[in-house]
Amino acid sequence: MAKHHKFPVTRTGHVYTIGEPGAHIQNVWIVTHGYGQLASRFIHRFKELDDGKTLIIAPEGLSRFYWGGFTGEVVASWMTSGHRLDEIADFSNYMQQVYEAFIPSLNDQVTINLLGFSQGCATQVRWVLREFPHFHNLIMWSGSIPEDIPYHERSGYWTDKKIFFCYGTKDPFLNEKRIKWCYDVIGEKQLEVETMTFEGKHEVDKKALSVFVQNHL
Predict the structure, then answer these.
(1) Residue 152 above 80 pLDDT?
(2) What are 4-37's pLDDT values in tens digits?
(3) Phi, psi for 18 (deg, rounded to 5)
(4) CA distances for 63 relative to 12, 35, 38, 109, 189, angstroms
(5) Is the pLDDT of residue 55 over 90?
(6) Alpha carbons 213 and 217: distance in angstroms, whole number
(7) 81 Cβ neighbours under 8 A, 6+ residues apart
(8) pLDDT exceeds cutoff 80 at 81
(9) CATH topology of domain 15-216
(10) Of 3, 129, 149, 177, which one has the fewest beta carbons inside 10 Å?
(11) Which sequence spans correspond to the domains of the chain?
């Protein structure tokens, strides 16, 4: 009979940034891409936020694969259902290392925004509820929160934070049934969430992002 063994190993994470860390930074964004994307491309969705006082940090998922099967473009993912608890632990440790590599170099008054797109939403939520980093705003963009986390056990953690749910009205992945499911989870977990919709599909629409920043942050 085959035996299953597990060994923690060191992985090399790839992180992309726009802006220079320092005491002059007033806003920092940690943004996580969706399934089958690359941080090197995803980060450019946020380049309009670069005003000289903003730092944008885009970690790339640790799992890579060929989008076309055996060949084609190399893309990344945050996790699959296989050995999911180990993958959650691994990417949470990775995200925390990224956080600790940049945030201490910024001033104490900096506003910390976390934005997860699609699969990156669950990545952000699972990370913060494992490591409990300090931040101000969590933006779930075109994605939903995990339903299997006991949020009530850490209800106090959310008291000084805002949660936003943003999605396009033409998003093929967030149909009426899925959106209802998202709100059911939000209600069941007793979370206070602000919603913003935009006319668009499954993407971080640059115009919609600009509107969101102007109206909510």
Answers:
(1) no
(2) 998 888 889 999 999 999 999 999 999 999 999 9
(3) -125, 130
(4) 11, 10, 11, 34, 30
(5) yes
(6) 5
(7) none
(8) no
(9) Rossmann fold (3.40.50)
(10) 3
(11) 15-216
